Amino acid sequence: MENILKIRKNKVSNELIFLPIVIVVLCVVSGIINPNFFTATNFLAIFQQIAVLGILTGAMLMLLITGMLDLSYGSLMGLCGVALCQFITMGLNPYFSLVLMFAIALGGGALNGFIVTRFRAEPLIITIGTGYVFNGFALVWSQGTYQSLQGQLAFIGTGRVGSIPVPMIVLIIVLVIIYLVLRYTPYGRKLHIIGGNTEVAFLSGINVNKYKVLTFIIGGLICGLAAFVLCSRIGSALASNGAGYELRALAACIIGGASFSGAKGTVVGALLGVVLLGIISNALNILGVDPFFQTTVLGAIIVAAVIVSNFSKNKE
Fold first, then answer.
1. Count of alpha carbons within 13 Å of 315, Cβ hemisphere only?
2. Closest CA to 63 of 105, 108, 109, 101
3. Looking at the 3D structure of the chain, how many domains does it have?
């Protein structure tokens, strides 16, 4: 067991060394091709753009460590955004509307956790199904049209503290909390044990189902926060606003060293994965690459990340 832990620590260390090198190389190449890349304004814009993805990636990381994943996050984000705008449009207090939106996010996470644990179902399939349910509710509620935030709660998405975008500050706070929880709390240690071997966790007295449901609930709340930041930034919501975010979050986690098999992954690695995706997207925009081709590049990155993850798993 000690040898396995040492091997995993070495692999995580290697990934944390490799990713910064790749990021630096990409930055240098992009800066040489277009000097506008190397500006403080551009780097702050990158972190503002990746804030929503980074927040959601934190939730996905916790599930991956537990040996699960949630592909309904994008649809749940869309539902939460539509709900927030609808509540405010109805004349409810903006902050009370925010509380109601987080209640919906919590309910979505709890629903996924209950179904997965109660019926011992595969999270991949269940969350794809509930994703359709969430998206359907959002489409019916909004009639497929944009919903306005009525100019409320804009500071979180567009405000700045000095020159630092507020979304970037929110991202840092969320990831620091997740880092501390995973590394220093009994809850975080139990998630690693469950992800490493569910049967061993159960036999050691851990209430596996309780921790799985709790992780889905926390993930739902974090998803709601990501939806709030996104909605606040653009001032409106559409049922499809979160489309694709769950796959990018999954890709960022895998690129950063997480594994589908569980018990592996770090917040720092996940953040580096998010930064890498953000820099690639920003560089392609600056270079004037067709947006449709950018989607192709993202797909190739996800495929490569899964291949590398499986290759590393087989070597173990």
1. 9
2. 109
3. 1
> In 3D, which of 251, 256, 231 has the Cα closest to residue 155?
231
pLDDT in tens, 233-280: 999 999 999 999 999 999 899 889 898 889 999 999 999 999 999 998
On whether residue 191 sits in a domain, the answer given is: yes
In a domain, 2, yes or no: no
- Comparing C-alpha atoms, which of 79, 82, 142 is closest to residue 106? 79
What integer pLDDT is reported at residue 198 of this predicted model? 95
Give the sign of the dihedral formed by CA 229, CA 235, CA 236, CA 242: negative
Q: Are 110 and 213 in contact (CB under 8 A)?
A: yes
For residue 247 the two structure tokens come to 């796959």
Long-range contacts of residues 20-28, Cβ cutoff 8 Å, at least 24 apart: 20/272, 22/276, 23/272, 23/275, 23/276, 23/279, 26/276, 26/279, 26/280, 26/283, 27/279
Which residue from 198, 224, 222 is spatially nearest to 210, judged by alpha carbons?
198
Q: Which domain holds residue 236?
A: 11-315
**Using CA atoms, how far apart are residues 283 and 175, in angstroms rounded to an integer?**
25
Q: Is the pTM of this model over 0.85?
A: yes
DSSP string, 71-101: TTHHHHHHHHHHHHHHHHHTT--HHHHHHHH
User: What would the two tokens of residue 154 be?
Assistant: 């804009």
Tell me, what CATH number does 234's domain have?
1.10.3470
Rounded-to-integer distance, Cα 277 and Cα 301, Å: 9
Distances (CA, A) of 151 to 27, 146, 157, 175: 36, 14, 11, 28
